[in-house]
């Protein structure tokens, strides 16, 4: 019975090493995925901020231009506000067809 114990011991040690290696690999994969997601969030958040700033300044420019054309700044800003209100109504009405592609894009990014 002694020879069997000695023969099985290396197998048990190899199994333990295999499990330890798999755990280390899993940790590294989790770290890699989480850092990739964090980096992606930072980049996309920066892009969104730049788009929002561009949108904001373009809105002011349009409002000032329309105010100059209409000879009344409040009418220019009011026209831009009405334009955004109409766009918001269209988005609320067409929410489902717009929502599904966005969800699909986010799911693809998470499982990339």
Question: Helicity, in percent?
Answer: over 70%
Principal-axis shape: rod-shaped
Query: What's the mean pLDDT score?
Result: 90
Counted beta strands: 0
In whole angstroms, the N-to-C terminal distance is 52 Å
Number of helical regions: 3
Largest sheet: none
* Secondary-structure class: mainly alpha
**Rg from Cα:** 29 Å
The SSE order reads HHH
**Portion in strands:** under 5%
Poorly predicted ranges: none
Task: Please outline what is shown here.
This protein has 112 residues and is an all-alpha fold. Helices cover 95% and strands 0% of the residues. The chain is built from 3 helices and no strands.
Textual characterization of the structure:
The protein is an all-alpha fold. It has helices at residues 2-70, 73-93, 95-110. The mean pLDDT is 90.
Walk me through the topology:
Elements: H1 2-70, H2 73-93, H3 95-110
What are the main properties of this structure?
mainly alpha, single chain, 112 residues, 0% strand, 3 helices
């Amino acid at each position: 019975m002694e020879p069997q114990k000695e023969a099985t011991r290396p197998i048990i040690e190899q199994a333990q090493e295999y499990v330890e290696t798999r755990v280390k690999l899993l940790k590294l994969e989790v770290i890699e995925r989480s850092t990739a997601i964090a980096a992606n969030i930072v980049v996309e958040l920066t892009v969104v901020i730049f788009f929002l700033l561009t949108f904001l300044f373009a809105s002011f420019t349009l409002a000032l231009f329309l105010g100059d054309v209409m000879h009344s700044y409040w009418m220019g800003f009011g026209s831009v506000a009405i334009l955004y209100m109409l766009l918001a109504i269209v988005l609320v009405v067409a929410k489902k067809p717009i929502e599904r592609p966005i969800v699909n894009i986010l799911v693809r990014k998470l499982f990339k």
